Amino acid sequence: MTKIVFIFPGQGSQSVGMGEELVKSNPGNKTFYDKADEQLGYALSKLMLEGPAQELTYTYNAQPALLTTSTMVSEILQAAGLKPDYTIGHSLGEYSALVASGVMSFEDGVKIVHKRGLYMNEVVPAGKGAMAAILGMQADVLKELTDQVTAEGDVVQLANLNCPGQIVISGTKEGVEKASVLAKEAGAKRAIPLVVSGPFHSELMRPATSHLQQALNQLEMQDTDIPVISNVTASPVTKAEAMKDLLVQQLYSPVQFEQSIRTLLDLGVDTFIECGPGKVLSGLVKKIDRSAVIYAAYDLESIEQVIEASKEWK
Questions:
Q1: pLDDT per position as a tens digit, 100-141
Q2: Residue numbers of the domain that contains 149
Q3: Which of 60, 156, 247, 295 is deepest in the core (most CB within 10 A)?
Q4: How many domains does the chain have?
Q5: CA nearest 63: which of 159, 200, 160?
Q6: Average pLDDT value over all residues in the chain
Q7: What single-letter DSSP state applies at residue 255?
Q8: Does residue 60 share a domain with residue 91?
Q9: pLDDT per residue over 72-99, tens digit each?
């Protein structure tokens, strides 16, 4: 029996024009743009379709834009009869997973991630923090380096444990730069700055937690029978109250993506479908388990390929 997980991307996967082809092929999909614009009170859809790219990168725009596109893809697949057994998102993508699992509505999802982006930007304005992907280094060795830089006064820590040989660090601009240099000196293959507007999943985000907690408490969230794998614990969650607490912790805690995928494999999942812009997470899953069946559904052609392939699944 095929077991399916929908995977949802986080910040960094946004691009101008995302979702446009899906709307042109089916004007009914425009309702996602319309609902997002209505909930936010500004033309997010115009920014998604026309840019500028720099403005789309700002966390308070990128977050609702990605959730809108990812939900559009997820809904198209579900309307075609593809129902996930589990959902998971990477960082921001966890909110898209909650929408797909029915924990929160699309409208509430758009509003909460926009607020989340504003809170995150307020505590560390764009340009003051940074993130970088460190390739070819063990987590324990890299943690020693980030702890050293932090002890010297520039905060930096492990933020995303993505797959073997790829860990993202996050912190102040200076802290990330210093840790990146030390990592390369200690044998890391590469240190790649990420196109994000803040130091996500670091202690620098902790001041935003009280605002996010208040906003989440005002949402109507439902328990679900489609478990969401938590970024914080790498374990399945079905209770709305538990998920609220984990979403708050997620702001400053590392994303346990590699362990989450291993949890899904242990649960018998054999088919991974990335829903939304890009193919970043598909690549990470392949590095974690080369035998996994992986699809990236991000445009009309790739969505149709998934739907066609699913006709053979039992």
A1: 999 999 999 999 999 999 999 888 876 788 999 999 999 999
A2: 129-196
A3: 156
A4: 2
A5: 200
A6: 95
A7: B
A8: yes
A9: 999 999 999 999 999 999 999 999 999 9
Catalytic residue among 70, 91, 170, 180, which? 91
Say yes or no: 215 and 118 in one domain.
yes
- Catalytic residue (choose from 201, 202, 230, 253): 201
Q: Any catalytic annotation for residue 91?
A: yes
Q: Tokens 């820590």 — which residue?
A: 157
pLDDT tens for each residue of 215-249: 999 999 999 999 999 999 999 999 999 999 999 99
Last residue of a domain, one of 196, 215, 247: 196
Q: Which amino acid is at 210?
A: S
- 212 and 97: one domain? yes
Q: Give residue 125's pLDDT.
A: 72
**Residue 253's pLDDT band (cuts 50, 70, 90):** very high
Q: Which one, of 140, 135, 134, lies nearest residue 171 by Cα?
A: 134
Please indicate whether residue 90 is annotated as part of the active site.
no
Q: Are residues 208 and 258 in the same domain?
A: yes
**Both structure tokens of 78:** 């579900």
Length of the chain: 314
Instruction: Kindly state the DSSP code that residue 171 receives in the 8-state scheme.
Output: E
Start-end of H helices in 10-84? 20-25, 30-40, 44-50, 53-57, 59-79
Render pLDDT for 164-196 as a digit per residue (tens, 0 to 9). Answer: 999 999 999 999 999 999 999 999 999 999 877
Q: What is the CATH number of the domain that holds 154?
A: 3.30.70.250
Compute, in degrees rounded to 10, the torsion defined by CA atoms 103, 253, 217, 76. -20
Residues 93 and 221 in one domain: yes
Residues 221 and 239 occupy one common structural domain? yes
pLDDT of residue 207: 94
Average pLDDT over residues 153-174: 96
The predicted structure's pLDDT at residue 196:
74
One domain for residues 120 and 146: no
- Decide which of 176, 196, 216 is a domain's last residue: 196
| Gap between the Cα atoms of 222 and 47, Å rounded | 31
